[in-house]
Amino acid sequence: xxxxxxxxxxxxxxxxxxxxxxxxxxxxxxxxxxxxxxxxxxxxxxxxxxxxxxxxxxxxxxxxxxxxxxxxxxxxxxxxxxxxxxxxxxxxxxxxxxxxxxxxxxxxxxxxxxxxxxxxxxxxxxxxxxxxxxxxxxxxxxxxxxxxxxxxxxxxxxxxxxxxxxxxxxxxxxxxxxxxxxxxxxxxxxxxxxxxxxxxxxxxxxxxxxxxxxxxxxxxxxxxxxxxxxxxxxxxxxxxxxxxxxxxxxxxxxxxxxxxxxxxxxxxxxxxxxxxxxxxxxxxxxxxxxxxxxxxxxxxxxxxxxxxxxxxxxxxxxxxxxxxxxxxxxxxxxxxxxxxxxxxxxxxxxxxxxxxxxxxxxxxxxxxxxxxxxxxxxxxxxxxxxxxxxxxxxxxxxxxxxxxxxxxxxxxxxxxxxxxxxxxxxxxxxxxxxxxxxxxxxxxxxxxxxxxxxxxxxxxxxxxxxxxxxxxxxxxxxxxxxxxxxxxxxxxxxxxxxxxxxxxxxxxxxxxxxxxxxxxxxxxxxxxxxxxxxxxxxxxxxxxxxxxxxxxxxxx
Length: 556
Prior knowledge:
The chain has helices at residues 3-37, 49-55, 57-90, 96-108, 111-122, 137-161, 166-173, 178-206, 210-215, 223-232, 237-268, 286-311, 322-328, 340-369, 376-394, 397-407, 424-446, 450-458, 463-492, 495-500, 508-517, 523-548, and strands spanning 40-41, 44-45. It has 556 residues and is mainly α. A hairpin with a 2-residue loop joins strand 1 (40-41) and strand 2 (44-45). Helix 6 (137-161) packs across helix 8 (178-206) and helix 15 crosses helix 17. It is globular, with a radius of gyration of 24 Å.
């Protein structure tokens, strides 16, 4: 091997080793330690906790509720997401690009904001309170669909936009009506993308924390909130660890199905690199447009508008900015160590640090995964590497935060306890956002024609020169969107952060949750105002990222 090749191998090895080391220390080790807790009693191996936990009726009730919530949310998200995919990716109308950007916002809104928004809409004093849907399966499923309609629309829509329409057109020529041609020709071709989106929605819904915690309470607990309850309220770490095994099984099945469907999807049908020209809306599109409009207004806009309206009313029901003023100078009886402005500042700093970590690791991972080695062994190794990188997407944030608490007491010989500082918060937030960063950057790098790299090499360019002149400029096309995802997800992360925050160092999502649940006068209204502030910041970040991007494809 000549010297240049040796340096190239070393560089690529290091590019893969750095993210793997980060994942091993801050993800695999904490999660494995958490699982091991369920098998150890007084320092000895004891698996008796497993049958004890799974023999309890409440365990199976919680697992059943988790599957029911995730299943119903998946069906609702598919039913509403397909019309959205058609309108945004197959029709051409003014403002379509801006509307696509707005549709991204619900996906990255903090779960605590969405939970509070639906509570403001359907809870006591809300405009839809007479329906009696507060603390019900219906409101939980609707809130989960609030997030995941976007997942379906983007996953299916980006696939649909590149789908060859010849089969559908042939069916129309042979006399099939518009609906029949879609059902017999287009729908079967879309099935892999729909199934892939469904598995992702099920995954996200089954690991939801903030939504179920705020809207469901103990009665409608899922596995995620039950782990939190066992840990925080009862200090029953062993039972929580055992219950996490059920969650791993659910998550593992979802990840396997998603990965297989994603790989097989584009092989199942013929796709075009360039999209067909989108059609102008016609009279036949009216039913789909009505469904899309109702989804936008009732599912997405109504809860947010209710949240804003109720945040502008004081305890007497009069229009006022008192709730926002209280964020600056909160009463002493509120559960806050400082003002909400301080929490906003801390959240910003932590989100910046988390986004920086996620971007550095995400770029390294995307560069490694975009390679096409000739060796079958190397290709299999990259597939395993890809799976390891995606694991944080499927392991709940609560499990991650719990595991970090168990393991980060002077880790690797470090001279201080990491659990007593805020250092672990951006690390956990970076792990949560890392899969989204990779899946935003990777499609652009995989879309580079290998002949470009080959031609550059033939012309004498060294590997680092190829990266600098071909890969990195192309990577910049989606870097803005990836950075927006990383910052927005980190800013609103609630599950792991709720474990890791320290007194005097509360993030904005944690502050909002505490204000909403506190009984002090005015606390609830201030929590609504805090949720609005958090939503505005998150939405602004994502809209800016969408505006700056050139290529916004996200491939899960």
